Amino acid sequence: MKFFITGERNVGKSYLVERIKPVVKYRGFETRFDNDLENLYMNFYEGDSLLIGTRERGRLRIVEEGFLFATKLLGSLDIPNDNLLIMDEIGFLEEDSPEFQQAVVSSLRRAKHCLCVLRKGNFSFIGHLKASMGVGSIEITPENREEVYSRIVREI
Questions:
Q1: pTM summary value
Q2: Which residues contact 9 (CB under 8 A, 6 or more apart)?
């Protein structure tokens, strides 16, 4: 089963992922800012942490070297059928890395089960991703968080 979730900032998308991780075997990555919110890292659960974005004059800019290395890691990631592929989160920086976009699509096709967190907004890659996978996204709200959690755990 493949789940794509989205929602407003701070609604609990990553929290939902953190609640699911203890009950499944998983592979993949999470993106997190440093404490100063200046640098964005892609942390692979298998150990690598890559700088993929940095703020310049208040705007987040892509770090191409980080995305290129992430492309290699994701492209070679072994995803056994009994593992959940987690990608937390796909956002707007991916718009500037066609190679990483291809690695995302390829890994989603290789995975039997996935949980992909998508940044809310009008982004061409996210639109393409949902269309190419033939799925819509579930919008997380404070009112449906528990229901979505239960559904994902039950179906995976």
A1: 0.93
A2: 120
